[in-house]
Design goal:
Structural class: mainly alpha
Number of strands: 3
Helix content: 40-55%
Strand order of the largest sheet: 1-2-3
Largest sheet: 3 strands, antiparallel
Shape: elongated
Number of domains: 2
Order of helices and strands: EEEHHH
Strand content: 5-15%
Radius of gyration: 21 Å
């Protein structure tokens, strides 16, 4: 039998002030730690797709994949699908860049203030 033990270097207390004077507040599934910020237990970068620049990261990955496909003479169908995906992503990025605050505000509202950046 194996036992896995996880130890946190930051003491977590249910009271508002821990012994290390760090302010810890809990609201739903979000924990706010002074000096760290909000941590969402079940959140991911997809929840902050625009704020964290995920679209740009995906575009870079898709572009590199396209280059690789073209270098090895990839199937026309695969190349076409990837080009369509990149074109769609570029369209959404253009919309985002033209309406940055609108997109970011929508994310903030959808995440109940988790995304403060």
């Amino acid at each position: 039998m194996q036992v896995i033990v996880t130890v946190s270097p930051i003491p977590m207390h249910t009271s508002e002030h821990s012994s290390s004077n760090q302010l810890v507040e809990m609201e739903g599934d979000i924990i706010y730690m002074d000096g760290v910020g909000p941590i969402g237990q079940y959140y991911s970068y997809l929840d902050t797709f625009w704020a964290k620049g995920i679209a740009y990261f995906l575009r870079k990955c898709y572009s590199e994949e396209l280059e690789s496909l073209l270098e090895v003479g990839g199937e026309t169908k695969q190349v076409r699908q990837l080009v369509e995906r990149i074109n769609h992503l570029n369209k959404r990025i253009s919309e985002f860049e033209a309406n940055r605050e609108l997109f970011l505000n929508r994310e903030r509202q959808a995440n109940h203030g988790l995304n403060k950046g």
